[in-house]
Each structure stands twice: as C-alpha cells, then as structure tokens.
Amino acid sequence: MTDSPLDLIGFDSLLTDEERATRDRVRAFVDSDLRPNIARWYDEGVFPREIIQPMGALGLLGMHLQGYGCAGRSAVEYGLAAAELEAGDSGLRTFVSVQGSLAMTAIHTFGSEEQKTEWLPRMARGEAIGCFGLTEPEAGSDPASMRTFARRDGDDWVITGSKRWIGLASIADIAVIWANTDAGIRGFLVPTGTPGFTATPIAQKLSMRASIQCDIVLDEVRVPASAQLPGAEGLRGPFTCLNQARYGIVWGVMGAALDSYRAALAYVQQREVFGKPVAAYQLTQQKLVDMALEIDKGFLLALQLGRLKDAGQLQPHQISVGKLNNARVAIDIAREARAMLGGNGVTLEHSPLRHANNLESVRTYEGTDEVHTLILGNAITGIPAFR
C-alpha cells in the first residue's frame, strides 16, 4: 500500500529531479510550519503573518517570475508548490497567489522599471505585501462593468470607487487598483496609506477563515501620474494576471483533494465497525478508488497545462478546462471524504470539511463554474454566449 494515489500511475516518473525536489521542499515546509497550526488559525479566523517571510525565503512569492529577486521557477514547479500549499489550506495557497500571481505579476508584466525595482524585490522577500483590486460589489464575473473611476487632475490621478473580496488588502502595503478612465480600463499602484484608501476585512466567513478578504473604499484617492501601470490597457491587463492565478488553482485544488483523500484513507483503515476496518467493506473501497482516479486525472491535466505553459503554448481556454474540472472534482472529493469520516468529520481534527468549505470559495473566485463553462462553450462553438 502506497501513501499516495499518484503512485497508482507512476506520476512521479513524469517529473524531473528538480521538480520533485521543489515539491518536496514545499511539502516539508507545509508539514513543519503550516499543518500543525492550521486548525487553530482556521478556528480563530486569523491569517498567520509569521509565515510570510519564511515563504519568501523559500522562494514561493512570485516564484514564476524572472529577475528582481524572484525565484524564476518553471510553471510546473509553481504548480507543484501550489498543490502542496493547498494540501495545507486553500487560504494559505491563496496568499501566495494574491501576492505573486496577481499583484507581483501585474507589476512585473505591466509596470515601469522604476515600479518593478521599487516593489518586486521586497515583495519577493515578503517584506512588502500587495493586493489586487479588481472585483467590485456589483462587478464580479463582468469586470468590464466596474464603476471605479480614475480622472486626471493636473499631473495626478484621482480614483473613486469600491472593491470587494480583495485578498490581503488590510495588511497590504501596495494595492494594484483597476479603474475605468476616459481612455478605458487602466491599472494603478496605490500605496495603502494614501488618504482616502480604506480596507475593511470581511467578517463572519464560513470559508477561507485562515485568509484575509476585504472591502476597499477609494474616496478621492490622489496618486501621481507615475502610479499608472504603463503597460496595462483595457481588460488584457487584469485578465493576464487572472490567468496566472487560475493556472495555480488548477494544481492547488488537487492538493486539497489529495489531503482529503489521505485523511479519509487513514481513518477508514483504523476505524472498525461490525468487527473489521471500514476500509474492508466494498462500498468504502469503491469510494476510495473513485477518489484516487479523479485525483490522478486531475494531476495529469494540471501537468499537461504546466508543460504547455512552460513551452509558451498554453491558451486561456485550456486554463478554463483545468479550473472548471479540477475545482469541481476537488470539492466532490472533499465532501465524500468528510462523509467517510462520519460524525468525527465535522471537527477540525480532520481536514476534509475545512477543505470543502474553502473550496466553495476557490470554486467561485477567479471565474465561477458558469464563467468557465461559457469560455469553453465559446472555444468549442465559436459563439460567445455571455450576453
């Protein structure tokens, strides 16, 4: 009996020595620093800021980016790291995604040399935190309808509007804010200490409790012309960052599924009912097999997308294949694993229900099932059905 369903198909043989080494380093960090504490952090509803700089030292922040103190790792290595982090907790993987895939990617891809030099090295070390302000109370799946507006006032920009569900905003040092202008959607770097900028954590969440999501209010926030991201015009800017984050989710959710599977497998092997382990019953074994097969297929899909990404061939609709399939599969596995734990599965002693609750958020953000279905429908038929 192996300890990983990936061994059913020899998944590790598809990875290079360097890729396995990266995965194992992140796994060791999760096991030593995150796993022993996550139930408490989740229960108390706190994000552990003490893990930020150790993550930076491990090269996890902006790890896919080149230069400016970033690790410059491959897409596959980034994906493997995301899976290991989310096996710990979706909220902790989300921190790495918001910092690296969203905020740092926006600066790295669309920023000026001065902006990159000022922010990226500190963000890679975890000494500065970024957030990504796109979603609004009335503009989630349709960011083109955002109401936040930036107007010119002399040499400055003045930004007014609101954002919602913005990860890390209350602890961030710099906010990437997307706003409409007279020339269309543009991106701006807004220091969070700027007058008129307010970030308020969203309370009473049933999901992502070891993570921070906020409401942002921008009340006549004045920034200089140099705050604009010079390379970002229209929705191509935020969508480039979103696709990077969505790619990480393809891997990350399978980490949550695998951790849920392992928890259920360990439990049914030691739990006895009617005189023998629960694992000895046919219905239990069928559930374990079905879960293992879906995990294997999900990781194979993630790896294929990673190889395409490293080759510069990954298309946006292919990311939707991975996000839609793997998020949907992962939440089903987490729920099934919880059921196999019986009543004990509703406590934080076991991970599956925590993962299932978190995956409700992950399945929703960076594109709902419906949005990714429509993206794929458009790819298949050539007919956009968004409206």
UniProtKB/TrEMBL annotation:
It catalyses: glutaryl-CoA + oxidized [electron-transfer flavoprotein] + 2 H(+) = (2E)-butenoyl-CoA + reduced [electron-transfer flavoprotein] + CO2. The keyword Flavoprotein applies. Gene3D superfamilies: Acyl-CoA dehydrogenase/oxidase, N-terminal domain (1.10.540.10), Butyryl-CoA Dehydrogenase, subunit A, domain 2 (2.40.110.10), Butyryl-CoA Dehydrogenase, subunit A, domain 3 (1.20.140.10). SUPFAM superfamilies: Acyl-CoA dehydrogenase C-terminal domain-like, Acyl-CoA dehydrogenase NM domain-like. The keyword Oxidoreductase applies. Residues 16-127 form the Acyl-CoA dehydrogenase/oxidase N-terminal domain. It comes from Microcella frigidaquae. Pfam families: Acyl-CoA_dh_1, Acyl-CoA_dh_M, Acyl-CoA_dh_N. It is an enzyme of class 1 (oxidoreductase). One of its GO terms (biological process) is fatty acid beta-oxidation using acyl-CoA dehydrogenase. This is glutaryl-CoA dehydrogenase (ETF). Pathway: Amino-acid metabolism; lysine degradation; Amino-acid metabolism; tryptophan metabolism. Residues 131-221 form the Acyl-CoA oxidase/dehydrogenase middle domain. Residues 234-380 form the Acyl-CoA dehydrogenase/oxidase C-terminal domain. Keywords: FAD, Flavoprotein, Oxidoreductase, Transit peptide. InterPro entries: Acyl-CoA_DH_CS, Acyl-CoA_Oxase/DH_mid-dom, Acyl-CoA_Oxase/DH_mid-dom_sf, AcylCo_DH-like_C, AcylCo_DH/oxidase_C, AcylCoA_DH/ox_N, AcylCoA_DH/ox_N_sf, AcylCoA_DH/oxidase_NM_dom_sf. One of its GO terms (molecular function) is flavin adenine dinucleotide binding. Its EC number is 1.3.8.6. Its cofactor is FAD.
